[in-house]
């Protein structure tokens, strides 16, 4: 990689220190957001969420956006008796930081389907509350309902596609969600040599019907792991 600079497009914001670290490894990353996330503000949500803080409930998060949007309704209080099931990486970090949840009460996985399997394997989960966005994927709630576990979905944020036509050619593109995949490919086509990097299997699955390009799944669900995956790939190919 030292003899060639690689040009990457990231479809979401990345921390400045991570961009600098990538630059030092010969990778120049350009940021363009392809979705817009807007927390939902309503008295109805406040009236539903705040009583839950005092209850022993099983709660599911599959995105950090849902954690942040739900936490905004908590008014400085924290759920002491929530059993939280969430995806690893940014979502777990948001749970620990915004909900102050003890690690003993957090169950994680890297994929929604296997997270659902963990919930079912517990054997003592009467129902779950699923905080999500308006474009949530159905794998987890559908699987739980099929196995007799009721799911209350509380939609706390809206995701809107914000397509941008890309004129440059990139060596790789970072995709962090199926919504970003849909937004990107609604107005763009990729040259055959551009590599698609997906944050997880769900995002990779969204890419597969839209492109024949190589798809590389990140070794983990954090932005840092995505960057490290790309660095390793280009160093070895």
TrEMBL record:
<dbReference type="Pfam" id="PF02602">
    <property type="entry name" value="HEM4"/>
</dbReference>
<dbReference type="InterPro" id="IPR036108">
    <property type="entry name" value="4pyrrol_syn_uPrphyn_synt_sf"/>
</dbReference>
<dbReference type="GO" id="GO:0005829">
    <property type="term" value="C:cytosol"/>
</dbReference>
<dbReference type="GO" id="GO:0004852">
    <property type="term" value="F:uroporphyrinogen-III synthase activity"/>
</dbReference>
<dbReference type="InterPro" id="IPR039793">
    <property type="entry name" value="UROS/Hem4"/>
</dbReference>
<dbReference type="GO" id="GO:0006780">
    <property type="term" value="P:uroporphyrinogen III biosynthetic process"/>
</dbReference>
<protein>
    <submittedName>
        <fullName>Uroporphyrinogen-III synthase</fullName>
    </submittedName>
</protein>
<dbReference type="InterPro" id="IPR003754">
    <property type="entry name" value="4pyrrol_synth_uPrphyn_synth"/>
</dbReference>
<feature type="domain" description="Tetrapyrrole biosynthesis uroporphyrinogen III synthase">
    <location>
        <begin position="23"/>
        <end position="228"/>
    </location>
</feature>
